[in-house]
Amino acid sequence: MRKLLDRYYGFFRKLKASYVLLNLFNRKKLRHTQRMYHKYGVKRNVLLPINSSLLPRGAVEKPWLDGPDALEKLKASAGWQRFDASTREAMLRWPTDGYIVLRSLFTLDEVAAMNTEVDRLIRDKVVDFNFTGRKIMFAYRHSELLRRFTHDRRILDAMDFLLGRKVRVFQSINFLTGSEQHAHSDSIHMTTYPLGYMIAAWIALEPITADNGCLVYHPGSHRLPYLLNNNYDHGGNRFVIGDDAYARYEAAIDEEIRKGGFPAQEFHAQPGDVLLWHANLLHGGKKMSSPDASRKSMVIHCFAEDVICYHELTQRPAMMEAAD
Question: What is the C-alpha separation between 36 and 123, in angstroms, rounded?
Fold first, then answer.
């Protein structure tokens, strides 16, 4: 049923009962959610829809680098000193900009191995594109080689440090072309309670330029308030997700960018370069100059351990695989 929903985009994808049924068939993957509900005092059946309005109010712990004194904390941290000089320098941008760039993190041989493996998985029909026609979801679950890269300590150690907690890989997305997505925060798709405990990595698997649909991001936008379902008219009700909930969300984000004055920057990259970004950094994909242009990349989304993980837009708990 999960594969069907990944490929299908229509009425049943908007029906909350479809996700309740999906949850029922995947109860084992909701054990983490059950434990976290208990930890945070959420009295709700894990099979039912969940969104930010149903979670406890009041002060909760923020990620340690989300406060006003984050830069001072970072520089004083013994953990920061364990990274090499270029990584330490890159990390200084995290508190103010909400992202870091790690150049040449992967070698050209490693990049070639990833591309060859993705090609094999597609050729052998092990993986396929989801309903967007652009995204290959969870390829690492079908390949030990890709799993090795999605779980590479060069990435995860940096993520652990930036969040101040151990992270676990939730999903991977492989692209052969640009996403051309509007600006968005990943926290509308992959949400945590407390907020901010998701982090992502974008790996360039070929040269990325202004012409082939590069990643576009808005430095500093991670400091905006999180835009969740109760902050805009999403058009849904207790039974269905709004017909155009995501289009309404994108319009609300565009207005936030306009009011906040966050100029866009482009991530031009060479194969093996990696960009890590904050859960609330606004980003998207530039329009490709040619529909035939390729833009090979792999994205990794990770949740911190010991937080509630769910999907605000579709109002469903995240299905977590057993910890590696």
Answer: 39
